[in-house]
Specification:
Helix 1 packs parallel to helix 3. This protein has 396 residues and is α/β, with parallel strands linked by helices. The chain folds into 2 domains: 145 residues, ATPase, nucleotide binding domain (Nucleotidyltransferase, domain 5), CATH 3.30.420; 181 residues, Nucleotidyltransferase, domain 5. It is globular. It starts with 5 loop residues before the first strand and ends with a helix. The model has no long low-confidence stretch (mean pLDDT 93). Helix content is 38%, strand content 21%.
């Protein structure tokens, strides 16, 4: 055991079926010590994986975890076990939704918890679990500063025409506006672009965060000006189990004619729709790609997903008056060359041209050298952004 504990920051990133985390040494710049995730929560394939960045040692063990809250309990015990070696001086939490009142990282206090409880119906796949995790960590580490980092913060720059719906203004005051999500991921990707050989400056950039939840964001002059998700993470693109944008008349029909109540509507749109509904199975995208040659429903699900992504990229380019850069990120965006190719096929009219060999190897840049639009693949890292916000909060 070392003579002195290493001061650290823990970044907690909870999703609907995954709990990711990172442990960073409190130094300048931040240095990752450990990272990992509890994946497949609620399934037979649930595992607890840890990567030790200092010792280059990876460990993955199967675990029986049926909820994100229980995953948090397991992670807390693991962090407490490390207490002799690492001293936690701050904990950061990814919180999907900040509502109308929170658009910057903020210290987690009782008032914030109460506000999140009020708006948890806006992100039913994420906020209830996030609140439970925060409460567990506050109870386990009562003397440590804990900071909430909101996915909606990055999109506070949305202009009037992108922020509001064409509904009575009184509803805007109630919070029925477009917030945008995956903001922490967008913030990280934009930072990586600034660190690269070709800084973004005033360029017109599209970030396609494609995973179990998917959204695409347009960035102009360094600011988010439009994004596919709106009032909640259920909007925009079709996703693994979410329908994405849908005619409001469909909802009225389901309520009136199918006699669905709000909970049933929530369940079908958030958990039984999207790729899962079209393919009529719950296989991950990589498995659907393997099946699509011989299975028409799998093929249709992939075609529809890529069609909607391609359509949105075209629309977002129009909002910026052009396009200079596309970045693919997220689990699907980073790891699926075929999905990237299907999405980009048909975007040649705005200057997109992939180099198939580079794309097949998921190179950092996958566009042709001569193409007007540069296409990159960048692995996102929401945990490092969360840790950096916690560090700034502690320093001030």
């Amino acid at each position: 055991m070392p003579d002195k504990q290493v001061q650290t920051i823990a970044a907690i990133n909870s999703g609907s079926s995954t709990l990711k985390f990172g442990l960073f040494s409190f130094m300048d710049p931040l240095r990752i010590i450990l990272k990992g995730k509890i994946a497949g929560i609620g399934t037979q394939d649930c595992s607890f994986a840890i990567e030790n960045e200092e010792e280059h040692n990876d460990v993955s063990n199967p675990v029986n975890i049926d909820s994100v809250e229980k995953a948090a309990e397991l992670l807390i015990k693991w962090l407490q076990h490390l207490g002799g070696q690492y001293q936690l001086c701050g904990i950061g939490h990814r919180v999907v939704h900040g509502g109308l009142h929170y658009d910057e990282p903020v210290l987690i206090e009782d008032k914030l918890i109460c506000e999140l409880e009020k708006i948890k119906s806006l992100a039913p796949l994420h906020l209830p679990d996030a609140i439970a995790i925060i409460n567990s960590f506050k109870q386990a580490f009562p003397g440590i500063s804990q900071v909430a980092c909101f996915d909606t913060s990055f999109h506070k720059s949305l202009p009037f025409e992108a922020r509001y719906y064409a509904i009575p203004r009184s509803l805007w005051s109630d919070g029925v506006v477009r917030y945008g999500f995956h903001g922490i991921s967008c913030e990280y990707i934009y930072q990586k672009l600034k660190e690269g050989d070709d800084p973004p400056g005033s360029k017109k950039i599209i970030i396609a965060h494609l995973g179990s939840g998917s959204s695409i964001t347009a960035i102009k002059n360094g600011h988010s000006i439009e994004t596919t998700m709106g009032f909640s993470p259920a909007g925009g693109l079709m996703m693994n189990t979410r329908a994405g944008d849908i005619d409001p008349g469909v909802l009225i029909y389901l309520l009136k004619e199918k006699k669905m109540d709000p909970d049933q509507l929530d369940h079908i749109l958030n958990r039984e729709s999207g790729i899962k509904a079209v393919a009529e199975n719950e296989l991950p995208v990589e498995k659907l790609l393997e099946k699509k040659r011989n299975d028409s429903k799998s093929r249709q699900a992939i075609i529809m997903y890529c069609y909607h992504a391609r359509k949105q990229i075209g629309a977002l380019a129009a909002t910026m008056g052009g396009l200079d850069t596309i970045v693919f990120t997220g689990g699907i965006g980073e790891h699926s060359p075929e999905i990237r190719k299907l999405i980009c096929s048909g975007l040649e009219f705005i200057g997109v041209a992939l180099n198939n060999e580079l794309n097949d190897h998921s190179a950092a840049t996958i566009s042709e050298l001569s193409a007007p639009v540069k296409v990159h693949v960048i692995a996102t890292n929401e945990e490092v952004m969360i840790a950096s916000h916690v560090k700034e909060y502690i320093k001030t």
